[in-house]
Amino acid sequence: MTCDAPAAQETVWRSYGTKGRSTRTLRVRTSAVLVAATVLAVLLVPPLVRLDQQAVDLAAKLLPPSRSHPFGTDDLGRDLLLRCVYGLRVSLLVGAAAAVTATVVGTAVGATAGALGGWIDRGIMRLVDTVSSVPHLLLGIFVVAMFRPGVWPVIVSVALTHWLSTARIVRAEVLSLRSRPYIDAAVSGGASRWRVAVRHLLPAVLPQAALSAVLMVPHAMWHESALSFLGLGLPTHTASLGTLIQGARGSLLAGQWWPTLFPGLFVIVPTLAIAGLAGAWRERINPRRRSELML
Fold first, then answer.
1. Residues 177-182: contacts with CB within 8 Å, 24+ apart?
2. Which intervals hold domain ABC transmembrane type-1 (predicted)?
């Protein structure tokens, strides 16, 4: 009987792990399908649907979803499906550009702090802590308010408020790599700090930096939508997901739910799908984190 208990316990844990792996596989596949659908919609819908997303038709305003307008129309009679696709394209562009910019800045700052160390490292991290103490949205509003509404001010705003986490991750990775034997061998062989950083440290942290960029895209999309919803991001005539939700507030109060629901889904579903794929990537490149999630 004492021999059967560990076997039964092992069977329970093995089945639980198998169930966990099946759940992760389903999550990854669902996320991949949603991301592929998002990319195809952004690339194919505008050229295939030969309609002007800015065309106003007051006779067809606030029509409910139908065969001719699957998502209905907005308060100016514009097709909501086409507007959502164009808004998603703008939000993806802003999110990807801001994520790449923030990752480049964060990687450069974190690698510099970790490679040089000493008072430079302490000064850089005190700067990171100071900027982190300010809420991202508040700092983003301050940056955007200095410019006219447009795409580039939003990209700059999101990038300047999202490089901090990447800097911390890259710095921690560089500090752990500096104690590796091959780094000590390179320094003992006469390699300068710059050469060690460029030839050994930077290539080793690139996977973490790339993962940070992918994880940052959904956050940047949410940030852009929030700024546009507040009227501080993109111009109101530009079809972004934030401006679509902001313009549908009056319709929601009047009982028309579709101008708010579908842009909201276009914000939530793609960002969750991208985050799901990025989470699977993180589990793959970090075995310790993966084993924790399996339990």
1. 177/201, 177/204, 177/205, 178/114, 178/115
2. 88-278
What tens digit of pLDDT does each residue of 212-253 get?
Answer: 888 888 888 888 888 888 888 777 777 788 888 888 877 777
The residue among 54, 50, 222 whose CA lies nearest residue 140 is 222
Gyration radius from the chain CA atoms:
24
Cα–Cα distance measured from residue 251 to residue 245, given in angstroms and rounded to the nearest whole number? 10
Query: What tokens appear for 90 in the block?
Result: 């703008």
What is the per-residue burial (b if ≥16 Cβ within 10 Å, else e) of 232-265? bbbeeebbbbbbbbbbbeebeeeebebbbbbbbe
User: For 145, phi and psi rounded to 5 degrees?
Assistant: -65, -20
| pLDDT tens-place string over residues 207-221 | 888 888 888 888 888
Nearest of 84, 73, 97, 94 to residue 38 by alpha carbon: 84
Q: Which residue has the tokens 């939508």?
A: 225
What is the distance between the alpha carbons of residues 197 and 235, in angstroms, rounded to a whole number? 43
Q: Three-state SS across the chain? A: CCCHHHHHHHHHHHHHHHHHHHHHHHHHHHHHHHHHHHHHHHHHHHHHCCCCCCCCCHHHCCCCCCCCCCCCECCCCCEHHHHHHHHHHHHHHHHHHHHHHHHHHHHHHHHHHHHHCHHHHHHHHHHHHHHHCCCHHHHHHHHHCCCCCCHHHHHHHHHHHHCHHHHHHHHHHHHHHCCCHHHHHHHHCCCCHHHHHHHHHHHHHHHHHHHHHHHHHHHHHHHHHHHHHCCCCCCCCCCCHHHHHHHCHHHHHCCCCHHHHHHHHHHHHHHHHHHHHHHHHHHHHCHHHHHHHHC
